[in-house]
Amino acid sequence: MKLTRFAFTLIAAAALAGCGSAVKLDEPAPVETRQTVTPPVTTTQQPAEPAQTAVPTVDLFTQLTQEVNSVGKRVVYFDYDSDVVKEEYRPLVELHAKRLNANKRAALNLEGHTDERGGREYNLALGQRRAEAVAKSLTLLGVGAAQVEAVSFGKERPAVQGGGEEAWAKNRRVELKDK
Predict the structure, then answer these.
(1) Predicted TM-score of the model (pTM)
(2) Out of 6, 44, 82, 88, which residue is the most buried by the measure of CB atoms under 10 Å away?
């Protein structure tokens, strides 16, 4: 019991000693102030010119547009009765996606076409599905849905006149045209 009383007394004494060195709240704390000295400007000093950069400005949209306008970079061809974008056209679609992502105000019309085989309504629907397949590929690569518009012309605007597989293959396409 005596040990407990002694410990309690010791703790109380330490607490009272700590209270005596506490900072009083009604007195403001001292603040150190420093004055900065600026050297006087002499009339012989010339104002510094802005630094010139040696790195040229790159307009990615313009560069990609030039690449897209090269031969064969604006048409995706399809297999007979198919609306699946072939693997070989992935780089072309990715190039257009980079271009559209570089300028969010740019937009494309995706014009779907078919060969002459099949009825008018069927070919219009197939051309629309082809155009929408390219649009979906672009949107999956980050292009805004408002930047692409899928339309179908069916068999009404053939790229090549005539029959035969060679002509039909060139007519089964989606053309990517700037708005």
Answers:
(1) 0.67
(2) 82
Is 70 inside a domain boundary?
A: no
**25 domain residue, yes or no:** no
CA distance 178 to 109: 6
Instruction: Provide φ and ψ at 178, rounded to 5°.
Output: -65, 145
Q: Does residue 49 form part of some domain?
A: no
For residue 135, the domain's CATH number is 3.30.1330.60
Residue pLDDT tens, the chain, 179 long: 666 676 666 676 666 665 555 555 566 666 666 776 666 666 665 666 666 667 777 788 888 888 888 766 899 999 999 999 999 999 999 999 999 999 999 999 999 999 999 999 999 999 999 999 999 999 999 999 999 999 999 999 999 998 899 999 999 999 999 99
